[in-house]
Design brief:
About 25% of the residues lie in helices and about 30% in strands. It is of the alpha+beta class. The chain has one domain: Aminopeptidase (3-Layer(aba) Sandwich), CATH 3.40.630.30.
Amino acid sequence: MTWKIKTYEELTKEQLYNIVRERINIFVVEQNCPYPELDDLDQGSFHLFYEKEGEIRAYCRILPKGLKYQQVSIGRVIVKEEYRRQGLASELMRNAITFVEEELQEQQIKIQAQDHLREFYGSFGFSPISETYLEDGIPHVDMIVGGL
């Protein structure tokens, strides 16, 4: 299984299109949550994904520190529905955290997690740093891993 990590400039038009399509399919359509998916943060982010036969099966974006938060952030974490419960989300997060630690030389990572995934992210060492709040109508919690 080959994971790819690319800057915005390195993505092909087809990869970018497929990534945005899957993010919209999951976050807007599947979760019935109309919100502005394109937020002008993709251009400064790293894009980590597993692609097979032109299909994006798992994806997240890694925002360098200072782009959105004081810390590096991992967001837009998705696994296409038919590939869930096969360990892809865990492998995706392990790869993202490794990239942050080894390539970006950062130890602290902040995420805005959907509250029902609190335990999943907790398994990677993330701890809540906020109360649960609504973001686009969905309960979220801010979480952090690494030195405070």
